[in-house]
Amino acid sequence: MERKIAWNEYSEEQLQQLEGFCGGYKDFLTKCKTERECVSESIRMAEEKGFRDLADVIAAGESLQPGDKVYAQYMKKSLLLFHIGTDPLEKGMAILGAHIDSPRIDVKQNPLYEEGGMAYLDTHYYGGVKKYQWVTIPLALHGVIAKKDGSLVQVCLGEKAEDPVLVITDLLPHLAQEQMEKNAKKVVEGEKLDVIVGSLPLADEEKDAVRGKVLEILKEKYDMEEEDFLSAELELVPAGPARDAGLDSSMILAYGQDDRVCAYTSLLAMLELDAPRQTACCFLCDKEEIGSVGATGARSLFLENTVAELLDRCGCGSPLSLRRCLANSRMLSSDVSPAFDPLYASAFEKKNAGYLGRGLCFNKFTGSGGKSGANDANAEYIAELRRILDEAGVCYHTCELGRVDLGGGGTIAYVMALYGMQVIDSGVPLLSMHAPWELSSKADVFEAYRGYKAFLLG
After folding, report:
1. What is the phi/psi pair of residue 217, to 5°?
2. Winning range, highest mean pLDDT, from 69-78, 175-184, 206-215
3. Backbone angles phi, psi at 342, to 5 degrees
4. Phi, psi of 337 (to 5 degrees)
5. Is the separation of the CB atoms in 218 and 122 below 8 Å?
């Protein structure tokens, strides 16, 4: 069963729209390399489109009416946006869900030490990574330092041309005979991912002089004491902007496209929505890469609690109304899928793989092995989505996460399905998924945006 190649379907006008849209996407990727940065930028964009903070609506005792647009954030790491429709909320919502955390290297709480005349920060990797991919590449430091007086210091070092970058070293080939005999999982181990932050000694210091110099710089630059590491959230991410890729500039190479490609396309579809019949919701959540756990993950009660507040502002705040709203909702759990890579063809089943350039892709089921841990979407729901996308002229195809006995994975779909709503996994195929730099097709990014807009309109 052959599916359309999106590039072959575009008019000259659509190609110009595609380039403009992907330009905005690249800017978003360059600015937003952490979940906090994603939430902050998304709120800024939403407020420009007339969205108001739901907390302000509640504090003022205001009611919400069809056409009203509100947002709610939690701990500055998860975000919900709502555009109230003309249908009663009890009839459910059209929900776009994506995650805004990405694999990275986190700085530990007691990280700074000196060894061999160099200062290091001790680290702990976050999410599923091939650790050897993170050595000898330029790294930037993003995050926040929370001070005891309640102030919050923003950190973004390594992104400007004049900024220094950080790096994790590797062993030279001449001395790596024993290292090269290890399997890929152990060739670089987690405790070897410490990042060098300095080699200049502090004058007149006899012990840990380089460490002392780093502390002096941190004090000067961020008014930071060493103990402030205890309440800091600092993330090491690849330094540099998102870039066009390929001689034809048909692709995008960037950090964090898993899953900010789905987050951005969902956000833009939400912001450009006009007068929906069914209430629209965009859910950008944290912690998916480590199991959707914690207060800011999809398994928290953030969505449920916020929808309860929304119903109350709409005049139907009973517990039964909440259950009906969630159960009657339909959702696209949007996350990336591995794109077919001819260099590693044996990892895929070609008929049911995602492909660059064929548009939005759908995973009817995820899980591993015998669909263990899967959300498995209903046939009737898929048929409804086919109708919506075909009527809108959106290019799409279906895929799986690799060969049956080899692949596997999951998204937030199974969490949302607990409410009884219709859910399917959808998203954009990526090459080099979970690597420091991931590759997407501009056509797939654009088709995801078009598909999400069509979905919200029903």
Report:
1. -65, -40
2. 69-78
3. -60, -25
4. -125, 155
5. no
Say if CB 341 and CB 348 are below 8 A apart. yes
E-strand stretches of 217-340: 232-238, 243-245, 251-254, 279-285, 330-334, 337-338
Q: Would you kindly state where each structural domain of the chain is located, as residue ranges?
A: 6-102+255-457, 104-238
Say if residues 397 and 451 touch (Cβ distance below 8 Å): no
Euclidean distance between CA atoms 339 and 74, whole angstroms: 33
- Residues whose CB falls within 8 Å of the CB of residue 245, separated by 6 or more in sequence, listed in order: 251, 252, 253, 439
The reported pTM is 0.95
Coil/strand/helix, residue 111? strand
d(CA 95, CA 245): 32
Fold classified for 104-238: Aminopeptidase i, Domain 2 (2.30.250)
Kindly report, residue by residue over 393-405, the tens digit of the pLDDT.
999 999 888 787 7
CA–CA separation, 185 vs 371, rounded Å? 25
Strands 429-430, 337-338: parallel, antiparallel or unpaired by DSSP?
Answer: parallel
Q: What is the pLDDT of residues 23-37, one digit of tens each?
A: 999 999 999 999 999
Q: Which residue type sits at 267?
A: L
In eight-state DSSP terms, residue 169 is -
Task: Strands of 306-391 (E only): list them.
Answer: 330-334, 337-338, 360-363, 367-368
Q: Which of 223, 222, 225 is nearest to 212 (CA)?
A: 225
Which CATH fold topology does 6-102+255-457 show?
Aminopeptidase (3.40.630)
